[in-house]
Request: fold
Amino acid sequence: MSSPTATTVAVGEPVAAAAPPRRPRRQRGGRGVKRSGLAPLLLLSPAGLVIIALTIVPIGYLIWMSFTDAGQRMLFTGEYDVVGLQQYRDILTDPSFWKSFARTVGFTAAMVGGSVLLGMGVAQLIGKVGRVMRLALTFVLICAWAMPNVASSMVWGWLFQPGYGVGNWLLTQTHLFGDVTDTNWADRPGLAFVCIWMLIVWQAVPFVALTLHAAQSQVDPAYYEAARMDGASEWRVYWTITVHFLRPTLLLVTILSIIWDFNVFNQIWLISKGGPDGATSTLGVYAYRNAFVSFHFGVGSAIAVVTTLLLLGLTAFYVRSLVRTGEEL
Amino acid sequence: MSRTRAARAPHANRVNRAPRPTSGRIVANTLAVLFCLVWIFPVYWMVNTAFKPPYDVTTPTPQFLPRHFTLTNFKAAITQSHFLGDLRNSLIVVSGTLVVAIALGIFAAAALSRFRFRGRRAILVVILAVQMLPSAALLIPMFLVFNKMGLLDHYLGLVLAYVAAVLPFSIWVMRGFFLALPYELEEAAMVDGASTANILFRILFPLVAPGVIATSIFAFVYAWNDYLIAYTFMKDQSMYTLPVWLASFSTPATGTNYGGQMAASVLFSLPVVIFFLAIQRNLVAGLSSGAVKG
Reply:
């Protein structure tokens, strides 16, 4: 539901595919008890029924709702009318939908770019520093990662609070932007976005960095020794060896980040509510406002369906690369 | 865990012995120190503010180092109306979610890892795919149905929504732990004539206990942190969970009490940070092939 707090990513597996296996890889996945029959069905059906009832059926209902004018009337009387493709026609001709769409794509690109590039850099750092520094880095990363996003949004609000925010104070001390002590970030379209961007990247870098570091540390050091003996520069070593072996993990991390950042809601809602004047309103915020602020459930459903379709391609790509990098299904 | 350590140790030694330009080391260490300072600062500032007396919180020049220590802010946060009630709401909903998700998930995970049957791959793909749904996609239909069934402002509604979100990845994470168990265990038991139920309950489930703990932590973190669903479903203030309580902390008539708000943030974040540090090895080494995103 809300951008999944926890989601599966193969951290160990792609690595196993990248590094030469130290012991013969055995056939995994479903190799166990080969007796078929009723046992697996019995074991699966409780969870299966729950997933069908709580996920598949609601998605069907969502699609149905998107063909109706379900609104406030429905909440009280349960009545609504079927309007066919009306909602889709309306949103697809609504300039604010297209603006939200473009904004979402732009935000996502900026956030994913920022977190993946920084994460790659930090992963490199973890591998290069000594033991104490590595522990410190890991501790810092985990603290940033673990902060619940409601709490970190509150902290951000305080860091950039007009008047006493320490972020504003520090920026003012640099004399680069003049006196910004009383600047209200959430009130300015560009600044609101910058503020949200910093928050998202701050929390996303640990996931990227630690995952990449885990993959990186599995690369056989013999490659590095050979390259260094041949006199390759550090930069060259990084690009030809590290990045080469990291590619599958990097791909997975990037796809996951795109999907997550595309669905970001809490941080935007808590910092700017999508404002000022819709300047930070992404598709998620746009759908939420339509459904739960103005109670146009039909419109909200249509937006949600369109968003799901947009993400479907990426999700398929994610599942495929997961399979490809060695995760047994 | 020991497996991870063993796999890493030889490699770490070799890297340390490799000749390495010291200037590079210095640059890397400097960058690492800078990064740590910048990245920990928001956390430091939260904690620092939480322990400051009000007159040190709002000063024209920020007080970077603590001068006076006080617990007033924590007292203010805890004694604030609804804190205890909302904490109770959170605990009820979180534990309900955990019990249901683990109980259902462990059987499904066993089926998807120790048996071979038709449709297994399709089910796994669905499990991966449903996690990528945008939040509004499940929120809208659930809200409408729960509204009709009277499940809004009700623990059960929230638990159902959380189970929907948590169950797929619980199955996936526990499945990873099942896959790591050697097949020979079952073979031996089967030779001795043990039934499938016996194999599951006597052999596999006890061995997969660490996986259950890891999964519980992931599920706990999800349900404990969720703001969007609780904010949408729980409109009665006495039914708020802690994240909603924390987010609404900033709207008293007297203006925001930042010291109190930061103390509340510390209290709310603390269990999650502790859990993350506790399962750090799982997070980093990917022992469970499960990862958490904030």
